[in-house]
Design goal:
three-stranded mixed β-sheet, 287 residues, 11 helices, 2 domains, elongated, alpha/beta
């Protein structure tokens, strides 16, 4: 009897060990996302809700869009969410990304001190707002990290530098009026708040930011400063995923579209970003 019991326990131990090894053989789904999704708080909501509904663990890999594209090309993520349209389209053209699907959007806004020395709040258009910054001696803080936010800055301010090296750990003065952080949106916003300077920020990060100090939203235009996010599915022709990763990526893709339809709202063209955010605790919207 004792021998049979010992034999059963040995077999049970071996079975459990085999199960645990099989469970650990597949790593969590690697979701590449931009820093704005993390700073706004949306990333935590997505990963928590997905894990609760499907029991699939996610490892978020957070980077600016430019760095995220490098990670995608290297095969370091399984699926991604980005907000830099031109870079996304290039990945599709190169067959690195097989599918680019619209998810949600919000707006960029220009923030600065309430004194507003460049009179950005009196601008008549987004181009006028940036011209006021360009022509003033007021300090402007740029992420300078090839992110979607940085690309939007460069569209309106073409002479802004493009980083050639990895971002520095410390803000770099590019001129008397420019400070380049090379960091994410939250860190850049902190520098702007500490220096009473101007910067461009997505409304999601702005609303979640708790250290605004003297900063105020001085310019917004949802048409010209639209911040659109897309789901990027990695092409199997570029990096061959395991069957499990293909399945999990497909499940996440289907799930996130259902989640956005259920949890996000369409926005009114007349409401301010703050008013729109009060309709829902998530400052992202669908068309």
């Amino acid at each position: 009897m004792l021998n049979r019991l010992l034999s059963f326990l040995v077999s049970l131990t071996a079975l459990i060990s085999t199960f645990l090894l099989a469970s650990c053989s597949e790593q969590p789904l690697r979701l590449g996302v931009t820093t704005t999704l993390e700073d706004s708080g949306l990333l935590d909501r997505l990963t928590t809700d997905f894990a609760n509904e499907h029991g699939i663990a996610i490892t978020p890999i957070v980077a600016g869009s430019g760095q995220l594209f490098t990670l995608i090309a290297r095969g370091d993520v399984d699926i991604a969410i980005s907000h830099e349209p031109e870079g996304e389209k290039r990945l599709v053209e190169q067959d690195i990304v097989s599918s680019r699907q619209a998810l949600f959007h919000n707006d960029f806004v220009i923030v600065g001190s309430k004194e507003d020395p460049a009179n950005v709040s009196e601008a008549t258009s987004t181009r006028d707002a940036f011209m006021r910054l360009i022509n003033s001696d007021s300090l402007y803080i740029s992420r300078n990290d090839n992110s979607g936010t940085h690309r939007m800055e460069q569209y309106w301010w073409p002479s802004l530098p493009t980083p050639q090296l990895l971002p520095s750990s410390a803000p770099q003065p590019a001129s008397i009026k420019l400070l380049l952080t090379g960091t994410g949106m939250g860190e850049t916003l902190t520098v702007a708040a500490n220096k009473d300077a101007y910067t461009l920020v997505d409304i999601g990060t702005w609303l979640a930011f708790n250290n605004k100090q003297q900063l105020r939203v001085l310019w917004r235009d949802s048409q010209t400063l639209r911040n659109a996010y897309h789901l990027l599915t990695i092409s199997p022709n570029h990096i061959t995923p395991t069957d499990q990763k293909q399945k999990e990526s497909r499940i996440f893709s289907q799930w996130i579209h259902q989640w956005t339809a259920k949890n996000l709202q369409k926005k009114s063209s007349t409401d301010t970003p703050e008013e729109r955010a009060q309709l829902n605790d998530i400052p992202f919207f669908i068309d």
